[in-house]
Amino acid sequence: MEALLTFIHQLPKGLDVVVSNAGKSIRRPIKDSLDRYHDFSRTMAINYFAPVQLLLSVIPLLQKNQGQIINVSTINAMLHPFPYWAAYQSSKSAFDIWFRSAAPELNALGIATTSIYLPLVKTPMVLPTEAYRKMPAMSPSHVAKIICKSMYTKRKKYRPWWLPLGQFGSLVFGGLLEQFILSNVRKKGN
């Protein structure tokens, strides 16, 4: 991180855009995590602390150039949490909340902010999870187009058209969803 920050601060024309796409994913039941605290600390280090450290350092450069920060987040930060993803969902949600909390201050400094909420994307990160190999997922090239388009539109938020419906469902049917999830977790024996 220190080498990267030194390099960035030596750029002759400063910095115009930062795309924060930190992502370390772990799918593991809590009972299998009891002696694996390091899974949580590592995931927070990559998905939360590293992007916060990077952005705190480059805010003056972005302010000088009236730049933009694009955070590539996950739809999970906006929906009811699911079991087995405690480390990932909490770390991505922590940064999402940090970024949304900082956005008004950044905007007041002349820095545009964009949050991009994505469903599953077919990247090497999903390959270890067998169930995800067969699920529908966005292609990385489609996601790249969304990110690039947000650089010139400076739209505040991108989300799939159906995400507000999922959020509504999470809110209205949260209790039923919890019962359904609990029933499935019990069936699996985790």
From TrEMBL:
Alphabetical list of Gene3D superfamilies matching this protein: NAD(P)-binding Rossmann-like Domain
Domain of life per record: Bacteria
Listed InterPro entries: NAD(P)-bd_dom_sf, SDR_fam
Pfam family, any one: adh_short
Keyword entries, A-Z: Membrane, Oxidoreductase, Transmembrane, Transmembrane helix
This protein's record includes keyword Transmembrane: yes
Transmembrane segments: 161-182
UniProt keyword Membrane present: yes
The family this protein is said to belong to: Belongs to the short-chain dehydrogenases/reductases (SDR) family.
PANTHER family assigned: DEHYDROGENASE/REDUCTASE SDR FAMILY MEMBER 7B, DEHYDROGENASE_REDUCTASE SDR FAMILY MEMBER 7B
Protein name in UniProt: NAD(P)-dependent dehydrogenase (Short-subunit alcohol dehydrogenase family)
Organism: Anoxybacillus andreesenii
